[in-house]
Amino acid sequence: MKLGLHLPDFTYSGGPAALAGDLTRTARAAEDAGFEMLSVMDHVWQIGVIGPPENEMLEAYTTLGYLAARTQKVKLLAWVTAVVYREPGLLAKCVSTLDVLSEGRAWLGSGAAWNGEEAAGLGLPLPPTGERFERLEEALQIYRQMCSDDDGQYEGKHYRLARTLNSPRPLQRPHPPILIGGSGERKTLRLVAQYADACNLFAGPDVERKLDVLREHCAAVGRDYDDIYKTVMLPLDPGPDGQKVDDLLDQLRGLAKLGIEHVHGWVPDSATIRPLELMGERVIPEAARF
Question: I want to staple 111 with a disulfide (CB 3.0 to 4.6 A). Which of 20, 167, 181, 200 is the partner?
């Protein structure tokens, strides 16, 4: 099992003036600790489970570009992109650019979006749920086409592109991997089976059932279930002095037995660096044995 670090909170003690340095130290410490991936949220306001909307929130792809220049190995993605916030051609261009400038470390994390408050606040599109899923599917088709040799037009229900030219194309072939976030059994997991390289579920008692549903969707579309990288989102808290390491390892061990290959999450107080060092010393090497 591999682990990834999610950075959902940019309200650091030094304030915005020190944020670039704090972010650099955190990202490099995560890489040194052995985290496989590093992600940020694709929100423009802070979300309620983390803090008030007035708290600091960086734009995702600008931040990922900055992190690409400050790291060397860790994979980079938005966990997950609100697909309707950017036109699909521009989104494909963003991920392609990130892949080239990170020397092949970009992923596309994508989902149907949900935050009506921030969308209304900044005038971002947030159509009804059914339409968002239709647009997500078309965006995935456009992304894959723009990463291929086909620079022809695209004609969908919601998007029409006269020429899907994308130069330079991403370094990874056939494209930077696609992770779809969410566990909706009828739509989201069907899209995972048809288009994605990885799923993302929330850790909980229904993980095994969600994986069974994904297996069924894979069978229906003729996809090998084992080709999909199984990930879950789970808080990664080793405790200030490692007091919670054993409990965390028990959770990770249980998920590994279900077939989960990657656990991604927020490490409390990661900006102080010591929790990341504890993860690298006591959790990541042990989880690699699961």
Answer: 181
**pLDDT tens-digit readout, 181-194:** 999 999 999 999 99
> Tokens for 83?
């697909």
**DSSP letter (8 states) at residue 196:** -
DSSP H stretches of helix in the chain: 19-33, 60-70, 88-101, 116-122, 129-146, 188-195, 207-221, 245-257, 274-278, 284-287
Instruction: Tell me how far apart the alpha carbons of residues 231 and 179 are, in angstroms, rounded to a whole number.
Output: 9
Contact 77, 109 (CB under 8 A): yes
User: How far is 252 from 77, CA to CA, in rounded Å?
Assistant: 22
Element housing 244 (H / E): none
- Contacting residues for 281 by C-beta, under 8 A, at least 6 apart: 33
Contact between 134 and 154 (Cβ < 8 Å) = no
Q: Which residues of the chain have pLDDT under 50?
A: none
Residue 132 near residue 126, CB atoms below 8 Å: yes
Q: Cβ neighbours of residue 153 under 8 Å, at least 6 residues apart? A: 160, 161, 162, 163, 164
